[in-house]
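Figure 3 (text version): C-alpha cells given as input.
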C-alpha cells in the first residue's frame, strides 16, 4: 500500500512538472501545427535568381550573343509523408512586451498592449506562402511574388489581462508562427550563354562541369581543346602532370563561367547547388492576411530563498519550477478531425 501511495505521489509530481514545463508547452503547440501542414504539389514553392553579364570572348557571337544569364533555381519535389514531416517544421518569432516586477504581496493585473511585427524572413528569395485554410489546415504553395514577403502587422491586444502574483516578474509575449523547410529539392545552376535565346544549345548545366577550384585551371587556345577532346572532361591526369594547371573544362571555357559555377555548385562557403539536400526556406503562416500568432503570459518567481513555515514548505514542494507559461489566446490545438482550433479573445483563461 505504501509503495502504491508513493507511486501515486510521484505520478502527481510528474504531472505537475509537465503542466508547467514551458519547453514542453511550446513543443506541443508547434507539433500540433506541423501536423496540419499540406503542400500544394501542383504549385509548390520555388526559388529563382538571374544575374546578367557581358559574355567572355569565347562565348561572344557578333550581332547575336554578347550577354550571358547566370540562373540559379530551386523547386520542391513531391515527398512522401515521412520525408515531408521530417523536412517541414514550425518555428516562431517572439515579440516580448515590457515586463512588470510586482514587489508587493498582492497580485496585480497586467494588461496586454499592441505590438508591431515585421516579417523576419523578408530577405528569403523563395516564392513560398503558408496560409490557414477554411478546413483548418496550413497550405504550403508558391507565392505570387516576392512583394508578398514584405509585410508588417500590428498585433492587437484584445484587452487581455494576466494576474501577476506578488514577488513575480511578469510580461506578455506574442508568438508569430512560421513554416520552415529544410530538405531535398530540385536544384539547378544554368548558364545561358546567349541571354534572351530559348535555344537549348546555349544552356549549360554548370554543376556537371565543376570539379577542382578555379586556381587549378587556365585559359587555353582552341587547338589545345581539340587535343584533349578525347579525354574525360574532368580527369586530365593522362595529359597534364600533378599540380600543372589545365584548360578550363568542357563547356566552361573561361574564368567568368567557371568561377560562377564553382561558387554556386561546389564552393564550401557557397550555396552548394551540387547537393540536392540543402534547400531551406522560412515563411510566416497567415490567416486572413494576418500572421498566425498566439499570446503568452510569462510569470517568473523573483522571491528567492527565504525561511518558510512548515505549510509554505509543503506547498513549495509541489512547485517544481518558478517559470510558468499561460497561453491565453490564439492557436488552441486541433480537434478530433485534425482541424485547427483558435481560442477567441473573450474566452476565459
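Below: residues designed for each position.
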Amino acid at each position: 500500500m505504501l509503495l502504491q501511495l508513493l507511486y501515486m505521489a510521484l505520478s502527481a509530481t510528474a504531472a505537475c512538472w509537465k503542466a508547467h514545463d514551458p519547453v514542453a508547452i511550446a513543443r506541443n503547440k508547434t507539433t500540433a501545427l506541423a501536423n496540419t501542414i499540406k503542400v500544394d504539389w501542383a504549385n509548390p514553392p520555388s526559388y529563382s535568381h538571374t544575374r546578367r553579364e557581358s559574355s567572355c570572348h569565347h562565348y561572344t557571337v557578333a550581332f547575336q550573343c554578347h550577354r550571358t544569364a547566370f540562373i540559379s533555381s530551386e523547386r520542391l519535389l513531391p515527398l512522401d509523408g515521412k520525408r515531408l514531416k521530417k523536412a517541414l517544421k514550425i518555428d516562431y518569432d517572439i515579440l516580448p512586451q515590457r515586463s512588470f516586477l510586482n514587489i508587493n504581496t498582492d497580485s496585480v493585473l497586467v494588461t496586454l498592449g499592441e505590438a508591431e511585427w515585421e516579417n523576419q524572413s523578408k530577405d528569403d528569395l523563395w516564392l513560398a506562402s503558408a496560409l490557414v485554410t477554411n478546413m483548418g489546415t496550413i497550405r504550403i504553395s508558391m507565392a505570387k511574388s516576392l512583394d508578398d514577403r514584405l509585410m508588417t502587422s500590428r498585433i492587437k491586444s484584445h484587452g487581455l489581462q494576466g494576474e501577476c502574483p506578488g514577488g513575480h516578474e511578469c510580461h506578455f509575449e506574442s508568438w508569430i508562427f512560421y513554416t520552415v523547410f529544410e530538405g531535398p529539392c530540385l536544384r539547378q545552376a544554368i548558364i545561358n550563354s546567349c541571354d534572351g535565346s530559348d535555344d537549348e544549345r546555349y544552356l549549360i548545366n554548370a554543376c556537371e562541369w565543376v570539379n577542382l577550384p578555379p586556381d587549378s585551371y587556365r585559359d587555353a587556345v582552341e587547338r589545345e581543346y581539340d587535343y584533349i577532346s578525347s579525354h574525360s572532361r574532368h580527369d586530365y591526369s593522362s595529359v597534364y602532370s600533378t599540380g600543372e594547371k589545365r584548360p578550363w573544362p568542357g563547356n566552361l571555357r573561361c574564368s567568368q563561367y567557371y568561377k560562377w559555377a564553382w561558387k554556386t555548385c561546389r564552393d564550401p562557403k557557397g550555396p552548394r547547388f551540387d547537393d540536392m539536400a540543402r534547400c531551406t526556406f522560412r515563411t510566416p503562416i497567415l490567416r486572413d492576411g494576418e500572421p498566425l500568432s498566439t499570446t503568452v503570459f510569462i510569470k517568473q518567481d523573483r522571491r528567492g530563498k527565504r525561511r518558510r513555515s512548515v505549510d509554505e514548505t509543503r506547498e513549495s514542494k509541489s512547485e517544481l519550477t518558478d517559470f510558468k507559461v499561460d497561453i491565453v489566446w490564439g492557436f488552441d490545438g486541433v480537434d478530433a478531425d485534425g482541424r485547427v482550433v483558435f481560442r477567441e479573445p473573450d474566452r476565459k483563461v
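The chain has six helices and 21 strands.
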